[in-house]
Amino acid sequence: MKNKHPKLNFGIELDESIQVDGVSATATKFGESFRGIFRWQQSFFKLVWKQAIIYYIVYVSITLFYSFALDSGNQANFDAITSYLARYTSSLPVVLLLGFFTSTALNRWFSIMASMPGTNRPIALYVASLKEDAADGCARVDLYIRYVLLMWLLTFRIVCKPLRKRYPSLLSIQAAGFLRDHERLLLEKHKQQPGGRSKTLPLVVYDWLNILLRDTCQKGYFTVANDFGRNIDAIQALKKGGGNVIRFASKNVPVALIQAVTLAIYCYGIVSVFSHQIEKHYLTSVLSGYFPLPYALPFFFYYAWLKVGRIAIDPFGSDEDDIDILNIFDGHINGAMRLRNCYGVKITIPSTDSSTFLLS
Amino acid sequence: MKNKHPKLNFGIELDESIQVDGVSATATKFGESFRGIFRWQQSFFKLVWKQAIIYYIVYVSITLFYSFALDSGNQANFDAITSYLARYTSSLPVVLLLGFFTSTALNRWFSIMASMPGTNRPIALYVASLKEDAADGCARVDLYIRYVLLMWLLTFRIVCKPLRKRYPSLLSIQAAGFLRDHERLLLEKHKQQPGGRSKTLPLVVYDWLNILLRDTCQKGYFTVANDFGRNIDAIQALKKGGGNVIRFASKNVPVALIQAVTLAIYCYGIVSVFSHQIEKHYLTSVLSGYFPLPYALPFFFYYAWLKVGRIAIDPFGSDEDDIDILNIFDGHINGAMRLRNCYGVKITIPSTDSSTFLLS
Amino acid sequence: MKNKHPKLNFGIELDESIQVDGVSATATKFGESFRGIFRWQQSFFKLVWKQAIIYYIVYVSITLFYSFALDSGNQANFDAITSYLARYTSSLPVVLLLGFFTSTALNRWFSIMASMPGTNRPIALYVASLKEDAADGCARVDLYIRYVLLMWLLTFRIVCKPLRKRYPSLLSIQAAGFLRDHERLLLEKHKQQPGGRSKTLPLVVYDWLNILLRDTCQKGYFTVANDFGRNIDAIQALKKGGGNVIRFASKNVPVALIQAVTLAIYCYGIVSVFSHQIEKHYLTSVLSGYFPLPYALPFFFYYAWLKVGRIAIDPFGSDEDDIDILNIFDGHINGAMRLRNCYGVKITIPSTDSSTFLLS
Amino acid sequence: MKNKHPKLNFGIELDESIQVDGVSATATKFGESFRGIFRWQQSFFKLVWKQAIIYYIVYVSITLFYSFALDSGNQANFDAITSYLARYTSSLPVVLLLGFFTSTALNRWFSIMASMPGTNRPIALYVASLKEDAADGCARVDLYIRYVLLMWLLTFRIVCKPLRKRYPSLLSIQAAGFLRDHERLLLEKHKQQPGGRSKTLPLVVYDWLNILLRDTCQKGYFTVANDFGRNIDAIQALKKGGGNVIRFASKNVPVALIQAVTLAIYCYGIVSVFSHQIEKHYLTSVLSGYFPLPYALPFFFYYAWLKVGRIAIDPFGSDEDDIDILNIFDGHINGAMRLRNCYGVKITIPSTDSSTFLLS
Amino acid sequence: MKNKHPKLNFGIELDESIQVDGVSATATKFGESFRGIFRWQQSFFKLVWKQAIIYYIVYVSITLFYSFALDSGNQANFDAITSYLARYTSSLPVVLLLGFFTSTALNRWFSIMASMPGTNRPIALYVASLKEDAADGCARVDLYIRYVLLMWLLTFRIVCKPLRKRYPSLLSIQAAGFLRDHERLLLEKHKQQPGGRSKTLPLVVYDWLNILLRDTCQKGYFTVANDFGRNIDAIQALKKGGGNVIRFASKNVPVALIQAVTLAIYCYGIVSVFSHQIEKHYLTSVLSGYFPLPYALPFFFYYAWLKVGRIAIDPFGSDEDDIDILNIFDGHINGAMRLRNCYGVKITIPSTDSSTFLLS
Hints:
Chain A has helices at residues 23-35, 44-69, 72-91, 94-114, 120-129, 137-159, 161-166, 170-175, 181-192, 201-218, 227-250, 255-274, 282-290, 293-313, 325-340, 356-359. With 360 residues, chain A is an all-alpha fold. The first copy, chain A, has two domains: 49-113 and 253-326, no CATH class; 116-250, no CATH class.
């Protein structure tokens, strides 16, 4: 279960899953991205270098064609066409459409990240509120932990391709120990019922968790009676968070808007490369012919901006910039193990605490 | 109750109702919309193709009329008029007005989606908190489920035309099993009272739910006393969510603003098609006469942007992009059945749990 | 208490008060506003038609004066002045100032609408949590309902002129049955005390509600002990919501900003009408002289946009677009009556429920 | 404790403190600001009139100097310089920087206003949850009220100059009755301890409130056991709200941003006054020389916009537009007295309630 | 533990840590920043003065080179190149990209500041809810306080370099008294386990806190049973807040966006300095050659704006404008000591309270 690529992922690492190679790594990396703006990982340059090369080749080809293949009459015709096209660049509402799209996408992204469900709260709450002298306490905790992790896994399998690749079927989930044989059969039976689909499998596990909690309550295993309701709430929140993630992944920003803005940027790029005008002055003719900065820079800034928006729309893929759900899931497993080991642990209160800071 | 068109709807699928044909479908579809920007479903192109054809026909007609029907004097007059009109294009505050309108509409849409009420929480809570040895426990659960679904149905019938078409009257709701005879009479009686309208029917069912909860509490059927309050809250949230949906559907963005922005875009389109100037240069005269891209593209990007805003304003219709409420309601029914079957179910805690992952 | 004008108001209808003439009306109206952009009610056209006529008359007068009263020398002078003024139009930061103002105003409007207090929650909670065998249960419920409605009424009287017109004094409120004689005297006494004003009257009723709740708690009339706290919270929320409404109505967007943006739009309009230049070409001279679209359209789009913002700032008036508080209050009364009739009602659980949908 | 200037303050009036001279005053004032855009109080005109006069004097002086002191050669030089400077006006990114700044400032302002702590909730909760037969009930309520008001006062003294002026020292607070002698000594002792400062004084009072609540709980004076937690929460909220206010006042928008935007606007103004070009046409030379509207209007709209942002950043001062904290504090005192008088008050439930509206 | 630099930090001071040199200092400082826009601390000028000097030197060097080293032919060439480059300045989408970036960064900053975890609530809650006659009450409180502070410290060590410098290792934390020997060994053991890293250390302390709370509950030391759940929640909130801070510090705004906007601004600056055109008129040639305001001002306003955004992205460093975490931590320690001393303190209710304000 070791993650092969322990580098930082775009975005965030959830609760249990913060797994960078030590503290300094993060800090350096973090500082790096500000001190040197020429960092490569997840960078602007990495996003655009392929497009930049193609852009440059096309640009120079047009210049060469213009300079050496066209006579002066055809050059005049060419100039007429390019200046006609150039009008497009200025009339296109690229910036505001782009800003609207990217800010919508990032807002959605931030809000989904803020509401991504975690397994820590329900597990910690259950472990804390279960009486320690319960007959089958440990088995109960194990079962609860397994169900919570299973529910999380089934939810994120729906939206996250890498997770689907690791756990391609219910059998593989069973093999990984999250599912028992009779439970798998129940899940498969559910899928054959009306309205039963892969997307409703987490809800079946949610039912199991509710039943388990009710059983715990009825047997009087909760330390405080109200803990029953608190545990039910934690499971509800897990379900709701999962539903939000699925909704977000299915649709967040209208397809037509994404297409419109992508098309607009591509049109802008194509026009900007074709409409470049070869200046008559011998110095600027070289500049304008072989150094397309005034044409290319706006396009590539737009392009990178667009990319940021599109990455924010589809954060559960396997790109470098996407959220590393596999990593996060491993973190959830580790956290669950840690919390499980807390059940029944006693603490001794030192009779006197003579810490330095308490005496200061 | 099978949904005939299981394709993804614009927007979101609520809790229980996520009903796409399996997992991979979503993923592919989701990837598709980003890899190929030429997808057709819910696309930019589908939104604008009719307008684009009309636009092109008008555009070319004007060019033909100009080139073949007008002599050079009239052509000069025509040029004068078009250049006068063309001023309009640049002076019109289209972009910012449009951005303001669309972002307001999408914000409203996101917030209404986030607060759309579901039936899962109240039902799950009731099932979990009802004592299992209650004499009429099952009948009580059935009644509660039926009332919750009925309240949801009556609420969304107000705003959603397809749902009104499926359940055109209280009798048809009774025929579908959500209403009993004496209950229908009570609802009809309520409509004749002062202040009683179709819009207040869900409130009557809300009263029934409150009475049912109080009855359950007084008979001591709740496992924990505080569950009474928690169930009351869940019903309150359902009522509040329904009220928000109705308010949102009745009015969300001022009509005058919608009209202003729609008129501005249409004016922009009409002017852009009429004001096109035939260039004198023989090459660009062909381009400007028959390839209206510099005129048409901005308009169609604006138009698609406007459409996105207007779809966000009216999400409960029967368009392809609207929220499929019928589908969602079927999901709520299936979810309710699932939760109902959890009532009274016992769970056995395995004495030892030797899952792989617990030993890792 | 029948509302004479049952048309939809700009904005929202709160909880109990949704009172449109049936369901289809809303839907049609709603659809209308999108299908036909030429609807009149609350429309763009209704907002601007008077200004448009004045604008046109002034515009044509100037043209006529220019064409027939000025000789060519004076015409040149006139042209010089108008072209000097025309600079103003382009230099004025109208769009962004306007967008800033309107989006601030609408955001405030949405947030106040979301936090407008309702009477349903406190009343429903009290009715649900009061023991049914309480000696004076019904009288207690009646008193509670009356106080809640009175507190809502006194709060909204502060901000809403139509409500003040219907209930001009405490005596008229007493005549309507919301106040008893000794209570009115207490309120009037409070107004004479230091810090006592019309604005603090709802707080006195809030005190009464607190006292009533404490009395109910001490007599042991709440079914569950914790219900006391929940009822206190509901009253607190009502008070807080009322405070928010008063604060919003007193001040929401700085006066200086409203003045600046209004002045800017008016200046823009005046300059646009005076700075219109009569083209020399005989065709465009007619167009520019008598068809002021390129000058007028931007102004009227701005003007409508401004109006939307100003309506959002003052939503409690008696304009067509304002929130119909009278209507909402009637809805609250009806809802209170409905909830009151729930107190003590018994429900019978059918022994078997053989609804169609439960068997599916 | 009567407020000398009972006019409306910019911003909001908090809970208890709404103190306008009666209802109609507000309404009129409110309406006024919309009907007449020429109102003076807190107006655009009041914000800019001084600057406008200076602007006009400088502007006309330059014109006079240009017309009468310079010969035609120097006039040409002058024209060259002004046209060079005029470029600045168009290249400066004034509008967007300004919009960004003002919207950030107003958002912060709205959010701080929404989270400003009030004394009503903790006091009302304590009064409502304290048993009426507690031996020292009244003294306990008095002490609690005094501590809550003291904590509020000590918090707002940190940020609000007028409050510091009214209560310049702990002795003056003691003189006003909010502090007793031994308490003042404790506070002064705290200030000498490490980490003890004026800013931590409210935290000491917060500790007293916690101790008082624990004492009330241990003596069994709360009607319902859970009320202890609810009261603790109310005090926590008061502390948190106070912390937010202090944080907001210390720093909210980065100083560099405020300076940048202020400098940009001032530069814009200076350039606009110096770069005005005297037109050659005899009519427009008068216009451009003595009627600087096209130059001045944009500047003054920017300037008013800037002012709105800066007022929003520093709302606790003593300007006309600032929040009248003195007034609000008086309101809190009055409200506390009102709530105190509720303790122990009995209510009689009328045996029958025959109000008109209940029979309708 | 005295903070050497007690000056105000950019941003906010959290709960316990407000440590300015008295009240008036803040007020003056606060006022200062508005009255004088020429303040130096954290100012616009301090942000840009180095860049401004370099900019001016380069600018003047180019002018001197142009004026004295180039003949008129080369000057013409130079003019051609600069006018070609100057196009870049106008075509670059600097403003909107910058506005988008900065507003995203500031929004994130405000939201992280609002959710920064504090130690006050968990400690105050524990102290308030612990029975005073608990056998080992004081030791228990001491232990709890130590764990809460330790968890806070371990969390912020991950993101904050100055804190890592003060406490470079677990041993140094132990030396400071926050950690005991056997606890340090447990933490070190955890780091060797799979999934154990520096980032998961706070979670181990979180487990200890949970165990301690359960122990307190089982021994019946909570005054009210429900306090157990409330304390668990407070610890959960601390953990969640810490997770948010770590997530925020690891990644908040995509690197590519930061690079794009930084590059765009730098390009803008370089082009603006190189593309400056020497006017031909002898007066303006001096102005344009040696007074680069029209070129430099927009750049420096952009630059300061950019800086504000970048400071907001990395708030935990050791710059003058960053949040002073060391200071805040000292405040938390002081606050913890203060709360600890509240445990077991008795309060005497004065039999009569004759405060002035109560008699008013």
